[in-house]
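Let's practice the habit of predicting before peeking. Look at the sequence and jot down your guess about where helices and strands might fall. Then scroll down.
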Amino acid sequence: FPMRLNSWFLRRCCQPPRLTSDHMTRTRIHLVLAWVACAFVATHESAAQAPTPQRLEWRVDGVAREALVYAPATATTTPAPLVFAFHGHGGSAEQFARSAKMHLAWPEALVVYPQGLKTPGMTDPEGKKSGWQNRAGAQDDRDLKFFDAMLAGLHEKFKIDDHRVYSTGHSNGGGFTYLLWEQRGEVFAAIGPSSAGTIRVREETKPRPLIHIAGATDAIVPIAFQQRTLSGVRFVNGCDPTGSPWAEHCTVYSSKGGAPVVVCVHPGGHEYFNQATALIVRFFKEHSKVLESTPAVTPASPTP
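Done guessing? Here is the structure:
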């Protein structure tokens, strides 16, 4: 009898239960609900950790101008790198913050996404969409004045590391970055235009390290035009004629003057390249500016 009892007990208690279709359905529902709960918690934890932007405003020639500013918690006590990131024509500060995510790639930096005003462009001759001036003197230099106001205001509100001020932008925003190099070159440690070009790189342009992102099949700013721009950039920066690999899709042209040029040509078109931010941030971190200082004055010898 004890042996028969043990055998019955083992069969009943040690074998896996037989699941009916109802049991299996309920189990699947519980697993799905558990996955949804985990995803909800992870999403909210990520949102809680994400920085909250400040919307700052300046008045430039009587016009309200604004930007989204992502500042590290220590930006009022410790000098931080400063990155300006300009959206393309028809874009916005919010849209470029979402697509570029420069503030997430470099959380220690003060990242500024300025908002453009209505501006005529290649695909918008009537100027119904927002953008940036494309040459000195256009629109009464409203955007150059806006940049000056932002730079001064940010210095008042935060501690800025003047050795590490940078500009990047996509398309029309990249063109404005080239204009800033031409007109305000002394400010920057390096620049990083994307899907843009210029015809105004001149010998008197102050050499600056530069990374340029381009799409091989760009139908808005053709790659041939961008390559002509980069030929002028390499000439101004005194780069070697032959480059070497720097990253996937990227070639670096070294410069004896400390102003290398990295050219990244991805297989896509005019869209913002999904690796652009990582490449630009890496390049910016590699370059800081040596500030020009006033020579020390030797004190006169005391009169005997």
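How did you do? Helices lie at 2-13, 21-49, 93-100, 102-105, 142-157, 172-184, 223-236, 276-285.
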